[in-house]
């Protein structure tokens, strides 16, 4: 597979992971997150029932120190702030040393809306958006982001 084909395959897996919890995450959207290193999936996470913890948190917890240098494939932009004041998913990804984040869909929530991608970029993490956005958009048809 080429690098682009790998990216597509990994994002399709993240979309499938997210699809499993659609309708079970309260007001939060169901997000899928894959952490991939050297072409191998090292962890997967999905937003938990009720909406917490977020997919990125779950994937990072599963990967531990192996997350350093990995690529995260996330179906919706990681949050850049949390209503609770806890570390955002963008901050957690950057602190774990993730090298790159590929995002399918933008998140219009006041807790994301470019803030997550901006925090990642400011921390030196490569961020790419729009990978399979059309396929992932179906996950968020009923999502009403906080404004």
SSE layout:
Blueprint: H1 3-19, E1 32-37, E2 40-46, H2 55-63, E3 71-76, H3 89-95, E4 100-105, H4 115-122, E5 126-129, H5 133-137
Parallel strand pairs: 3-4, 4-5
Antiparallel strand pairs: 1-2, 1-3
Helix pairs in contact: 3-4
First and last CA, distance: 40 Å
The overall pLDDT, averaged over residues, is 95
Characterize the biggest β-sheet.
5 strands, mixed
Percent in helix: 25-40%
Q: Can you write the helix and strand succession as a string?
A: HEEHEHEHEH
Under CATH at level 1, the class stands as: Alpha Beta
Rg from alpha-carbon coordinates: 13 Å
Overview of this structure, please?
Helix 3 packs parallel to helix 4. Strands 2-1-3-4-5 form a 5-stranded mixed sheet, with helices on both faces. The chain has one domain: Cytidine Deaminase, domain 2. The protein is built from 5 helices and 5 strands, in the order αββαβαβαβα. The chain is α/β, with parallel strands linked by helices and 147 residues long. Helices cover 31% and strands 20% of the residues. The chain starts with a helix and ends in a 10-residue tail after the last helix. The mean pLDDT is 95.
């Amino acid at each position: 597979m080429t690098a682009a084909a790998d990216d597509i395959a990994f994002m399709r897996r993240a979309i499938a992971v997210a699809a499993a919890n659609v309708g079970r995450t309260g007001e939060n959207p169901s997000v899928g997150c894959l952490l991939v290193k050297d072409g191998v999936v090292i962890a997967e996470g999905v937003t938990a029932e009720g909406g917490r913890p977020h997919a990125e948190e779950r994937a990072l917890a599963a990967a531990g120190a192996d997350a350093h240098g990995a690529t995260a494939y996330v179906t919706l932009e990681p949050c850049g702030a949390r209503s609770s004041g806890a570390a955002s998913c963008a901050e957690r990804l950057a602190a774990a040393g993730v090298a790159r984040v590929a995002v399918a869909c933008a998140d219009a929530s006041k807790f994301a809306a470019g803030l997550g991608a901006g925090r990642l970029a400011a921390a030196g993490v490569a961020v790419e958006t729009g990978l399979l956005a059309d396929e992932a958009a179906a996950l968020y048809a009923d999502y009403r982001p906080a404004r």
